[in-house]
Design a protein that fits this description.
2 domains; eight-stranded mixed beta sheet; Alpha-Beta Plaits; about 40% helix; Aminopeptidase; binds zinc ion; about 500 residues; 17 strands; alpha+beta
Amino acid sequence: MFKKIILSLLGIVLLLAAMLLFNTLRQTSKQLGQVKTNKATVDKDLVVNHLGGALRHKTISNNLNQMYDLGKNFTAFHQYLDSIYPNLTAKLTKETFAKYSLLYTWKGKNTALKPVLLLAHQDVVPVDGTSEKDWEFDAFSGTVANGYVLGRGALDDKTSLIGIMEAVEMLVKNGFQPERTIYLAFGHDEEVGGLGAQTIVEALQARKIELEMVVDEGGLISKGSIPGIQQEVALIGTAEKGYCSVELTVKGEGGHSSMPPPQTAVGVLSAAIQRLEANQMPARIAGATRQMLDFIAADAPFFLRLLFSNLWISEPLLRSQFVKSNSGNAALRTTTAATVFNAGIKDNVIPTQAKAVVNFRIIPGETIEDVLAHVKRTINDPRIAVAQSKSQMGQNPSPVSPTDHPSFQTLHQSIREVFPDVLVAPYLVVGATDSRRFIPICKNIYRFMPIRIASEDLKRVHGTNERVKVDCVVESVQFYARLIENLNGLK
Ligand SMILES: [Zn+2]
C-alpha cells in the first residue's frame, strides 16, 4: 500500500516535470531570425547640431503658459524646423492645431491604404529653480560635450522629434515616395494634458481617417529592464496604464484643541489612507506584462524560460518577486499613491476639514469605476466623502495592441536592422503618452523610442543633466528612416 502511494506520487512528479519541460522547450523564439543590418549614412555633426539647436528653444509646457506667453518660443521653434528641413517643408503639408501643435502630411502613392502616424512632442518640462545650479551646462544651451548632447528635452522627447524630421528630410531629398500616407504629429502640451494631440485626433476623425499604426514615445533600449535578461532589450509599449485621482474629504466639528474629540478630521483621513496603502488592488500578470514574458521566454536563461513558459503554475512565484521593486509592482497592479494632504490652519485649532488626493495608475483590465469601488469598500467609513478629482482628467487604461499584427512586425524588423544585437519585447507603459488620444482611430499603437540608454541616464529624464549619446542620435535617425522605408512593404 505504502509503496503504491510513493510510486503514484513519483509518477505525478515526473508527469509534472515532463509537462513543464514540454511547455518550456515548445516555446520557440519570437525574435526575428537573420536580419540584415541596414543603416543609412547620416551626417553626425549636422544632426547633432540640429538637435542642439532644438534644445535651445525653450518650448516649456506648464500650466502657467498663458501667464508667461511661452507661445513665441513655440513659434520660433516652428520657424527653426522650417529652416533646417527645407526639403521636408517643401514636400509635406503642414497644419497647426490648438495654436502650437503640428501635423505634417506626406501623401502616399496609394490612398486606399490606411496612413501611419509618427508622434512626438515639442514641449519639455521646466527646470526647477533649486536644481538649476546642478546642471553641468545651461539646461537650454544644447551643449555637445564628451560624446553627449545635453539639455532639457534631450531624451524627452526632442531626439525622437528631430530623428523623425531628419529621416523624412533625408528620404525626401533622395526622392523616396511613401506607399501609404505618413503623418508626423508633434503636440505642444504632452506634459500637461495633451490637448494639442486631442485636437489633431478630432481633425483626423472629422476627415474620417483611420490609422494603420501610431508610433509614439515610450520604451527605450536598455539592459536590466527585464529581470534575468542580460542582453539589451528594446521595449515596445503595447499598452499604457490609466489614470485616476481620488479626493477624500472629511468634515469635522472644529473647536479648541484643549477639549478635542477622540479623533480629528486629520486622524480620520490618515487612518483611511493607511487602509488604502495596506490593501492594494490585486497584482496579476496580465495584458502587456503577460505579453512581455511570453514574448521573451524562449530567449531567457533556462530557469526563467521554465518559469515564463509555465505561468499557469509559476505566476504566484513570479508575482511575489516582481512586486518587490516599485517598477515591477507598477507593471502588475493598479498602484496607489497618496500625493496630497491638506488640513489645519493653526496648532491649537481643531480642523473643520481634511482633504487628501490619492493617485491611481490603472492596469489594463480594470477601470476608473473599479478604482472608486475599491476605495469606498476599503475605506468603509461614512464620514469620508470619496469622489473622482475634477481637476485632473481621469483616463481608463488603453487596450493592448497586438504583437502578431504586421505593423508590429515592421517595427520589430526596423529595430533589428539598426540595432542587430538587441532583443525586442512588448511591455506596459506605466506613465501616460499623447498616443492614448489616438485610441479611437487606431488599433495598433506602439510606444517606442529608438534610443539606447544606460540606467543612470534614465534618472535624468525630467531630472538634472538630461542627455543623449551622440551615437544614439544618429541611430534614432537611422531607425526612423528604416521604419518609413519598411512601411512600403506593410500590406
Ligand atoms: Zn515625453
